[in-house]
C-alpha cells in the first residue's frame, strides 16, 4: 500500500495530471450531453440565449434587490395612504355611506392622498409652480432649486450615519451607537467651532476633525470592550447613546458653553469661520456637507472593496474563525471597525452644527440621525452607494414631509411611519414576495444578509 | 428496500445522495415522483411524518443543539413529560434511555455532557444513539463512519448487522468502498442526481469507484520513498489546553524533517486539533517549545507563523478554512491579501488577485463557474481544493494538513493526495493529521499515533493496521504489537475484511 515506485509517476507533474483529469471529465461531460439532451441546461450548454428584453422582464419579477426595494416603497406609500384616510375625520365620514354614494368616499380620499403626496414631491424634488414663476419672473431660480436644496441638506448627515452603521455591519458588528457617536461628534465640533479663535478654512477643518475625533472615541470604547472582554457591542453602544445624550444636555448649560444672552438650553453659536460654506447662495440651505458625504461614500466603498483593511473587515464580518485562521487579528479589526464607524457618525453629527441646520448646540441638535442611520444602512443593503441613495430617499421624505405638513396638514410623523414601513418591508422580503407573487430569486440571501450581526 | 436489508448508496460528494435521503426524511419536498412504503405512496410533510412512518436518519452534518446535554438532545422532538398538565421534562428517564441504548450498542456516551464540549466524533455518536432510541424500521445513515476510528467503525458495522438481524432496514450512505463491500447487501451508485448502476458487494473496488466517478481512478497513493533532510519542525514538551481549560496536549514531542510526511493518526478529540492550533499560533502553548528551522515560533501570531513559510489546511474547512460569502478569488488570497503582488500598503490589487486566481483554478482543477462565484456554492471537494491551492501556492518550509480530505469525493482525494506528495518531493516538511487511518497509512512516511494528548508511539507505514488501531485505542506499543500479532496468527481476525481491502 505504501511506497510503490514507478518511473514517471504522475505525482511528479501535477499540472499535467490536473489537465488530464479535466480533459477526461470534459470528455465524459460532452459524451453525456450527447446522449442525454435533458441534462444540457444543468451544464449550461445548449440552452438558447434569452433576448435582452425577456431577461429584463424576468429579472424585474424575480425577487431581486432592486425590485424588492421599489415594491417596498410602493407598499409603504399604499399603507401611508390608508393611514392618511383613516386619520382624517372628514374623509372618514364619507365612508359611512359608501354603499349609497361610493364616489364621495373615493373622490375625497383621492383628493386627500394625491394632494398630500403631490406636496411631498413638490417639497422634496420639484415644484412646477416655482418653475413657471421663474419663467414669468415672479420668483428667482432659487425657488426652483429650493426643494432639492432642502433634500440634500437633510441627506448629508444621514449619509454619514448610514455609512457608519453599514461599515460596522459589514464587519459583523451592529452599531446601534451612531446616535451617541454623532452626539459626541456634534459636541466636539461645536466646541471647536466657538471656543477656538482660528482663521477661516483652518477653523472649519479643525472643527470637522474634532467632530470626527469625538465620534471615533465614542466608537473606540465599545470596540475595545468587545475586543478585550467580549462585551456585546449592541448593549454597550446603546448605553453610550444615553451617556452621550445626557452629557450634551448637561454641557449646554455650563458656563462658557451656554449662550450668555439666553436662559434656555442653547450654546453659543459656532463662529462663521467654522461653518461649512453654502453651495447655492445664502437663501438656499444646501452646504458643502453633501460634497463631503459623497466623498465619504466613495472613501468607504474604496475602503471596503479595494483595501487590505476592507478585506480584513469583510472577512471578519463573514467568518471570524476563518479570518483568525488566515492570520487576521480579529480583535484589532473589531476595534478599527468601531473607530471608523464612530468617525463617520461623528462627521455626520458635525454636519448638524457646522452646516445650515443649526449653528448652536441644543439638546435635540442631532435629531434622530443616528437611529435613522440604521434604517438608511438597511435600506441601502449595507453597500456604500446604496446607503447614499437610501439617505437621499430619507432626506427627500424629510424635506417633502415639511411641505406636506404645512400645505396638506398631514403631520410630519407620517413621514417617520413611511420610513419605518419601507424598512420593515425590506427587512421582510418574503412578505413583499408573497404580496406581489414574485418568483423566488435571491430573497433568501437578502434576508440573511440583514440578519447578520446578531 | 427490503426489510432486513442493508442498502448502500454510493456516490461522490454532490452526487445527490444526501438530497435524496433528505427527501425520504421529509426535509425536502420532491418536485416529481413519489415514495412508496409497503406499496403505499407516502406524503412526507416533515421529519415527524417520517419518524411516524418508521424512518430515522443520522445526518452527515450534525443536527444537535450545541448548548443542550446529550440526554436533552436525544429527547428533543420526543420529549418525555411527567406531572400531567404541568409537563415537567422527564430528564431522568431520558438519561436512563440514553445509557441503556448506548450500552446496548456499545456506543459509550455521558448523557450529561453538553454537546458543544464534545469532540466531533462523540457528537456523531450521539446522533447515532438518537436515531436508535426512536423506534424506526428504516434507518438512514448519512456518512456515519466519517469520524470514527477503525475500531469504532467495526463496532458500528456490528451494530448494523444486529439491527439487520432484528429485521430493520438500513440505508448506508458513504463513499468508502471498503465499508460498502463489508456490510452492504445491495449497492446503488448515484452520479449527478441519477442512478448510474446497481452492484453487488462482490464487485471489485475499482469497478465501484469507476462507476462512482465515471472514469477509472487510482485508489492508492503512488509515491517514491522519502528522502528526509534536516529537521524543520521540532515540537518538544508541548502542553496545550482546549477551550474548556482541560489539558488537551500533554507533553508532545515531534520532529518533522524536510521531504517527509509525518502522519498523525488518532481518534478525533485526542489533542490533534489543539496540537496543530498551538503550532499555528491559534492557541497558546502553556509549556514546551515549537521551533521552525531552529527558530522558536511558539508565542508568535498566526500571521507571523504563516509568513515564516507554514502552509495550513484547517480541519474544518467551512468554519476555519473559507469565508463562504467570499468569491473563489478572494478565498485564494485569504492569508496573502496584504502581501505583494496582491496588496501593497493599504490598497488591494484586484487585477493581480483575479489573474492568480485564474491560474490556480486551472492548476488545481477547481471546478467553479467563475473565479467570482462565492466559494460556498462549490462542492466540498472543490472547496477543499481552493484551500489546498491557496496554501500550496507560496514557498513553504512546512505544510500542515488537518483532515485534508474529510467529506471530499474520490476524485478530489486522489488529486489532493497527489499534491501533498508532490509538496513532500520538493523538500517541504509535511505534517498530516487525519482520523482516516487509510489516509495516514497511504500518505505518511512515519506515523505518530496520538492518544489522550500524548504521542503514544511512532511507527513505520508498513505497520499492520491492527497494531495502529490498537495504539489509537490507547494500548501501549509493545502490547499492541503483541496483540496484533496474536490476532493475525490465530486467524480470528474479526471481520477485518474491509480493512485489508482498504489497504489494497
Task: Report what the structure shows.
Chain A: It is a multi-pass membrane protein. Chain A: It is found in: Cell membrane. Chain A: It comes from Micromonospora globbae. Chain A: Keywords: Cell membrane, Membrane, Transmembrane, Transmembrane helix. The complex is a heterodimer of chains A (454) and B (504). Chain A has 454 residues and is mostly helical. Chain A has a domain of 228 residues. Helices cover 70% and strands 0% of the residues of chain A. In chain A, helix 4 crosses helix 19 and helix 9 packs parallel to helix 11. The longest helix of chain A is centred in the middle third of the chain and has 30 residues. A 6-stranded mixed beta sheet of chain B has the order 4-7-8-1-9-10, sandwiched between helices. Chain B has a 6-stranded mixed beta sheet with strand order 16-19-20-13-21-22, sandwiched between helices. In chain B, strands 12-11-14-15 form a 4-stranded antiparallel beta sheet, with helices on one face.
The ordered H/E elements of chain A are HHHHHHHHHHHHHHHHHHHH
What is the number of beta strands of chain A?
Answer: 0
* Radius of gyration computed on alpha carbons of chain B: 23 Å
Q: Largest interface, by Cβ-Cβ below 8 angstroms: which chains and how many residues each?
A: A-B, 42 and 55 residues
- What structural class do the secondary elements of chain B suggest? alpha/beta
Helical proportion of chain A, percent range: over 70%
Q: How many β strands of chain B by DSSP? A: 22
Residues in helices of chain B, as a percent range:
25-40%
**Average pLDDT taken over every residue of chain B:** 81
Low-confidence spans of chain A: pLDDT under 50, at least 5 residues?
Answer: 1-47, 441-454
**Helical region count of chain A?**
20
Number of helices of chain B: 19
Mean pLDDT of chain A: 83
Distance between the termini of chain A: 50 Å
Assembly annotation? heterodimer
Query: How far apart, in Å, are the first and last alpha carbons of chain B?
Result: 30 Å
Organism (chain A): Micromonospora globbae
GO molecular function (chain A): transmembrane transporter activity
Protein name (chain A): ABC transporter permease
InterPro entries (chain A): ABC_transp_permease
Amino acid at each position: 500500500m505504501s511506497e510503490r515506485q514507478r518511473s514517471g509517476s504522475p505525482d511528479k507533474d501535477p499540472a499535467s495530471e490536473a489537465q488530464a483529469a479535466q480533459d477526461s471529465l470534459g470528455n465524459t461531460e460532452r459524451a453525456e450531453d450527447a446522449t442525454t439532451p435533458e441534462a444540457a441546461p444543468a451544464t449550461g450548454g445548449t440552452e438558447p440565449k434569452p433576448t435582452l428584453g425577456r431577461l429584463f422582464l424576468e429579472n424585474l419579477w424575480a425577487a431581486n434587490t432592486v425590485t424588492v426595494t421599489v415594491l417596498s416603497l410602493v407598499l409603504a406609500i399604499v399603507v401611508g395612504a390608508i393611514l392618511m384616510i383613516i386619520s382624517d375625520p372628514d374623509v372618514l365620514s364619507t365612508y359611512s355611506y359608501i354603499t349609497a354614494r361610493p364616489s364621495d368616499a373615493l373622490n375625497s380620499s383621492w383628493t386627500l392622498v394625491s394632494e398630500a403626496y403631490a406636496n411631498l414631491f413638490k417639497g422634496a424634488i420639484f415644484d412646477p409652480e416655482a418653475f413657471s414663476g421663474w419663467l414669468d419672473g415672479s420668483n428667482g431660480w432659487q425657488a426652483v432649486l429650493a426643494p432639492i436644496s432642502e433634500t440634500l441638506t437633510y441627506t448629508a448627515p444621514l449619509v454619514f450615519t448610514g455609512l457608519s452603521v453599514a461599515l460596522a455591519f459589514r464587519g459583523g458588528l451592529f452599531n446601534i451607537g451612531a446616535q451617541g457617536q454623532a452626539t459626541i461628534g456634534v459636541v466636539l465640533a461645536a466646541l471647536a467651532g466657538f471656543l477656538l479663535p482660528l482663521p477661516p478654512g483652518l477653523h472649519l477643518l479643525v472643527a470637522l476633525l474634532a467632530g470626527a475625533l469625538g465620534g471615533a472615541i465614542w466608537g473606540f470604547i465599545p470596540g475595545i470592550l468587545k475586543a478585550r472582554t467580549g462585551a456585546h457591542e449592541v448593549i454597550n453602544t446603546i448605553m453610550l447613546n444615553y451617556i452621550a445624550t445626557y452629557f450634551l444636555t448637561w454641557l449646554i448649560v455650563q458656563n462658557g458653553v451656554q449662550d450668555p444672552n439666553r436662559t434656555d438650553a442653547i450654546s453659543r453659536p459656532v463662529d462663521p469661520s467654522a461653518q461649512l460654506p453654502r453651495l447655492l447662495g445664502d437663501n438656499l440651505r444646501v452646504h458643502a456637507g453633501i460634497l463631503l458625504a459623497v466623498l465619504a461614500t466613495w472613501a468607504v466603498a474604496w475602503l471596503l472593496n479595494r483595501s487590505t483593511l476592507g478585506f480584513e473587515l469583510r472577512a471578519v464580518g463573514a467568518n471570524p474563525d476563518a479570518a483568525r485562521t488566515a492570520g487576521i487579528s480579529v480583535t484589532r479589526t473589531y476595534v478599527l471597525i468601531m473607530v471608523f464607524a464612530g468617525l463617520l457618525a461623528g462627521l455626520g453629527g458635525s454636519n448638524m452644527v457646522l452646516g445650515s441646520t443649526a449653528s448652536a448646540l441644543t439638546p435635540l441638535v442631532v435629531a434622530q440621525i443616528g437611529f435613522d442611520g440604521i434604517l438608511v444602512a438597511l435600506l441601502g443593503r449595507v453597500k456604500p452607494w446604496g446607503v447614499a441613495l437610501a439617505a437621499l430617499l430619507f432626506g427627500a421624505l424629510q424635506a417633502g414631509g415639511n411641505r406636506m405638513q404645512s400645505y396638506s396638514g398631514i403631520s410630519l410623523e407620517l413621514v417617520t411611519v413611511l420610513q419605518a414601513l419601507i424598512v420593515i418591508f425590506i427587512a421582510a422580503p418574503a412578505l413583499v414576495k408573497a404580496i406581489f407573487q414574485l418568483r423566488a430569486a435571491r430573497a433568501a440571501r437578502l434576508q440573511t444578509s440583514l440578519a447578520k450581526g446578531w | 428496500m427490503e426489510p432486513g436489508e442493508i442498502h448502500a448508496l454510493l456516490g461522490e460528494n454532490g452526487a445527490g445522495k444526501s438530497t435524496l435521503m433528505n427527501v425520504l426524511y421529509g426535509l425536502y419536498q420532491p418536485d416529481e415522483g413519489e415514495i412508496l412504503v409497503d406499496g403505499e405512496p407516502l406524503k412526507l410533510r416533515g421529519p415527524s411524518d417520517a419518524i411516524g412512518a418508521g424512518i430515522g436518519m443520522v445526518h452527515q452534518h450534525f443536527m444537535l443543539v450545541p448548548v443542550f446535554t446529550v440526554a436533552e438532545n436525544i429527547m428533543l422532538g420526543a420529549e418525555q413529560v411527567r406531572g400531567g398538565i404541568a409537563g415537567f421534562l422527564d430528564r431522568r428517564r431520558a438519561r436512563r434511555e440514553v445509557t441503556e441504548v448506548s450500552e446496548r450498542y456499545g456506543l459509550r456516551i455521558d448523557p450529561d455532557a453538553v454537546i458543544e464540549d464534545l469532540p466531533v466524533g462523540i457528537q456523531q455518536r450521539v446522533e447515532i444513539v438518537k436515531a436508535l432510541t426512536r423506534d424506526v424500521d428504516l434507518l438512514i445513515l448519512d456518512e456515519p463512519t466519517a469520524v470514527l476510528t477503525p475500531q469504532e467503525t467495526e463496532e458500528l458495522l456490528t451494530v448494523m448487522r444486529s439491527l439487520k438481524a432484528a429485521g430493520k432496514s438500513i440505508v448506508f450512505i458513504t463513499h468508502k468502498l471498503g465499508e460498502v463491500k463489508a456490510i452492504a447487501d445491495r449497492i446503488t451508485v448515484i452520479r449527478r442526481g441519477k442512478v448510474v448502476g446497481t452492484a453487488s458487494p462482490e464487485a471489485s473496488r475499482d469497478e465501484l469507484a469507476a462507476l462512482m466517478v465515471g472514469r477509472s481512478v487510482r485508489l492508492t497513493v503512488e509515491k517514491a520513498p522519502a528522502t528526509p533532510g534536516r529537521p524543520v519542525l521540532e515540537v518538544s514538551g508541548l502542553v496545550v489546553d482546549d477551550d474548556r481549560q482541560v489539558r488537551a496536549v500533554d507533553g508532545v514531542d515531534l520532529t518533522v524533517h524536510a521531504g517527509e510526511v509525518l502522519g498523525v493518526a488518532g481518534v478525533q478529540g485526542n489533542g490533534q486539533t489543539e496540537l496543530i492550533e498551538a503550532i499555528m499560533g491559534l492557541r497558546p502553548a502553556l509549556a514546551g517549545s515549537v521551533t521552525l528551522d531552529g527558530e522558536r515560533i511558539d508565542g508568535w501570531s498566526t500571521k507571523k507563523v504563516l509568513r515564516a513559510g507554514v502552509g495550513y489546511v484547517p480541519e474544518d474547512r467551512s468554519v476555519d478554512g473559507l469565508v463562504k460569502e467570499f468569491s473563489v478569488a478572494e478565498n485564494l488570497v485569504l492569508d496573502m491579501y496584504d502581501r505583494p503582488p496582491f496588496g501593497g500598503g493599504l490598497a488591494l490589487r484586484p487585477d493581480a488577485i483575479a489573474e492568480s486566481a485564474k491560474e490556480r483554478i486551472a492548476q488545481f482543477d477547481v471546478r467553479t463557474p467563475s473565479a467570482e462565484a462565492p466559494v460556498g456554492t462549490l462542492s466540498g471537494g472543490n472547496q477543499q481544493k481552493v484551500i489546498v491551492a491557496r496554501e500550496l501556492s507560496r514557498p513553504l518550509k512546512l505544510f500542515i494538513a488537518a483532515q485534508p480530505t474529510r467529506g471530499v469525493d474520490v476524485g478530489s482525494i486522489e488529486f489532493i493526495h497527489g499534491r501533498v506528495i508532490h509538496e513532500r518531493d520538493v523538500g517541504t516538511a509535511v505534517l498530516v493529521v487525519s482520523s482516516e487511518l487509510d489516509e495516514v497509512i497511504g500518505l505518511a512516511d512515519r506515523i505518530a499515533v496520538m492518544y489522550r494528548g500524548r504521542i503514544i508511539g511512532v511507527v513505520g507505514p508498513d505497520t499492520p493496521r491492527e497494531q495502529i488501531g490498537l495504539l489509537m485505542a490507547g494500548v501501549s506499543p509493545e502490547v499492541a504489537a503483541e496483540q496484533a500479532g496474536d490476532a493475525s496468527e490465530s486467524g480470528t481476525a474479526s471481520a477485518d475484511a474491509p480493512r485489508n481491502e482498504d489497504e489494497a
